[in-house]
Write a structure and sequence with these properties.
With about 150 residues, this protein is of the alpha+beta class. The protein has a single domain, classed as OB fold (Dihydrolipoamide Acetyltransferase, E2P) (Beta Barrel). About 20% of the residues lie in helices and about 35% in strands. The chain is built from three helices and ten strands; from the N terminus they run αβββββαβββββα. β6 and β7 form a beta hairpin. The longest helix has 14 residues. It is globular, with a radius of gyration of 18 Å.
Length: about 150
């Protein structure tokens, strides 16, 4: 089996291809492992039924009224996991904790206001605005290279 890395500025996005002369269990296993890493999903509740949400669709995860919610482009959904459990499952390169009650998807961050004394205001997709608590400001600055 060959493994190759091809970096080229002409590519618009990262693409992983699994190429093989025939379809085998080993090839399917490799494909499914890679797919699951990038397309992990969570079962959430919209009040009527359970549905799945892909990790890439998450804008933020937050706690309110003793519940944990996932905010996506499709709306707000309740999830049965605790915030710390979600933090453990999510990719640390893509998601960052900004307070005791909130995790944001860095890829959905549009801009930040760092002019506020001791905190940072974040502007996320869908017009969502949120604040980094003072305790997490140094972590955010380090993570984002500010």
């Amino acid at each position: 089996m060959k493994v190759r890395l091809d970096i080229n500025k002409d590519y618009d996005e990262v693409c992983i291809n699994v190429c093989a002369p025939k379809d085998t269990n080993e090839i399917r296993d490799i494909y499914n492992r890679i797919k699951n890493i990038f397309e992990e999903s969570f079962v959430v509740h919209d009040g009527k039924e359970a549905i799945t949400v892909n990790v890439s669709d998450i804008i933020r995860i937050y706690g309110a009224n003793k519940q944990v919610y996932i905010h996506t482009d499709q709306g707000q959904f309740r999830i049965n996991e605790r915030l710390y459990e979600m933090e453990e499952r999510l990719d640390k390169r893509c998601f960052v904790r900004i307070s005791n009650s909130e995790i944001v998807n860095i890829g959905r961050l549009r801009r930040m206001d760092t002019s506020l004394a001791g905190t940072i205001k974040m502007y996320l997709d869908e017009g969502t605005e949120t604040y980094v608590s003072r305790r997490y400001v140094p972590v955010i600055k380090k993570t984002l290279g500010i």
